[in-house]
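Tutorial handout. Part one gives the primary structure; part two gives the three-dimensional structure as tokens.
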Amino acid sequence: MGYLKSLRKQRRGVSVQVAKGSVKSRRAIPRVVWVLGFVSLLMDISSEMIHAILPLFMSVSLGAGAVWIGLVEGIGEGGALLSKVFSGLIADRFGHKKWLVFLGYFLGVISKPIFALAGNMPTVLGARLFDRIGKGIRGAPRDALIAEVTPASVQGAAYGLRQSLDAAGAFIGPAIATALLLFWTDNFRVVFFIALIPGLACLLLILFGVENTRISSESHSRTRISQLLGVGTPALRKIIFLGILFSLARFSNAFIVLRAADVGVAAAMVPMVMVLMNIAFSLSSYPFGLISDHIKPTMLLMVGLILLIFSDLVFASADTPYGILLGVILFGLHLGATQGIFATLVASVADSDRRATAFGLFNFFSGIALLVAGVFAGFLWEYHGACYSFLGGALFAFAALIVCLWLETRH
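Part two.
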């Protein structure tokens, strides 16, 4: 009850604080955060031009079934697991976060032509794995770099801003893919080649817009692999546990794309499903991040889980494109309420000289859960139908909500 009273006091001024604090927060957010946000925007334009149509390319052009698609999505994420941990460890041990970020984006960029040239599923799997390893390398040092340069009072807004720009790229990319598919009559490979252009632009922005950071010699304590879990304070372990539950409940977007095609959305218009989802994601990420600087962030995680449950139920029951549109809006709002919040929580509980390693550990365990969820959803879809895949996600989300409520009652 004491917590609820304090929360009510906080909420009295939240609406005014958010309205006034929005401008102040944007001014307080460092230039590097803005640059990294636009790097994410460009890379997501490049990546989502491919990812929005990749499930269709796999199923229509290469004849892959749902199990193959689930394996590509799941193994792609699973292959990035070790890179996530080791990139964080290396960033904390040696510094040079800028160059690790650059390497991660570079690997993502050079994977684009491989998708265009792929003639079978093993090649697609290899390209996807390569792309995801790049994502794994860049994530932890990038998020740690944001934490290093951002005042604690606006970290929620900073992570929300980067996530918002990232999601903006994620809806611009599919929109471009849709236009290109209409112009080239469903020629997936042309879209894959054109996706290389914004990827190259993002590499130039990192080279000339991001300053390298070096941790001090005092922070260069030698960390062995066996000591990695030393980062895992009770607070961080709690956040990692919640991240695992969220990943089990939220499997790959590829299944949303397949569900859209399943109810009759034309192939050329399927990318617009991801456009709508990421518009909702982009527009909600920064406001949710801003709010998280004024109330307890875990409250937003519970809001996000409720949105996810309703989204999964809509996807499970939808039989028209209009139902899919409602589901993707709810799913986008769920992402906006949770994605940046987890980054803020990890940054707030990790030691400053081990922050990148903490991000790596969080991403590692969340990635394992995502691998399991992707394969499980694929088998449910293949052998029982799309409805059961999304009902399974709703059950996991409900379980995660119960755990969140239980953890809240203990503090």
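Part three, for discussion. Confidence is low (pLDDT under 50) at residues 1-21, 216-230. The CA atoms of residues 93 and 220 lie 5 Å apart.
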